[in-house]
Write a structure and sequence with these properties.
Layout lengths: L3 E4 L2 E4 L13 E4 L6 H11 L7 H9 L6 E5 L2 E11 L2 E12 L8 H10 L9 E6 L4 H13 L4 E7 L11 E6 L4
Parallel strand pairs: 6-7
Antiparallel strand pairs: 1-2, 3-4, 4-5, 5-6, 7-9, 8-9
């Protein structure tokens, strides 16, 4: 379980999550670089179930949004990424845009580890809420955010967000998951 406390108005989230099947592995978490964009784009394409953005968007993650995004690496191989940003009109809220983990490395806690790493960065010291939009069929994301809410010992709510009719192509509705406040 994550332990957290308010310290000078900052939530400290411990990073003691053990990664399954990787005791003392070469796992590292870092902010993405623009040069990672190609690999992130391919990972999103191969993930299945993700809305794949233009390759340019994945380059921008490293160029403009790296302080609120993360990549998990093992021996310099990218195993997964989290893209996120602080809401412009609510800097206390981090919106998790995409989570993608290589299928061979799923169920090891990588997504939560990356989100915790982002929350521990100076840029997120005022963050007290997490949000994400999720389709009803994406049980992996639903489970991830339910688990995060339990770890952070705070409430999770689901609200309507994007109705299916808003999309130009066939797409499920997206509901907004809100976790927080945490402190």
């Amino acid at each position: 379980m994550v332990r957290h406390k308010a310290t000078q108005n900052r939530v400290t989230v411990s990073r003691n999550l053990k990664i399954k099947n990787h005791p003392d592995s070469g796992l590292s978490i870092r902010a993405p670089l623009a040069k990672d964009g190609k690999a992130l784009y391919q990972m999103a394409k191969n993930a299945g179930g993700l809305d794949v953005n233009a390759e340019y968007a994945y380059l921008l993650l490293g160029a403009h949004f790296s302080n609120t995004c993360a990549v998990a690496l093992e021996d310099e191989e990218i195993l997964g990424f989290v893209s996120a940003y602080r809401l412009p009109d609510r800097p206390d809220t981090l919106f998790i845009w995409q989570v993608s983990i290589d299928p061979q490395h799923r169920k090891r806690g990588l997504a939560k580890t990356m989100i915790r790493d982002i929350l521990n960065r100076d840029i997120c010291q005022a963050v007290r809420h997490l949000q994400a939009s999720i389709t009803p069929s994406n049980t992996a994301s639903q489970n991830l955010f339910a688990s995060l809410a339990r770890d952070l010992e705070c409430q999770i709510t689901k609200l309507p967000f994007f109705d299916a009719t808003l999309f130009s192509e066939s797409h499920e509705e997206e509901f907004l998951v809100h976790i927080g406040p945490f402190f």
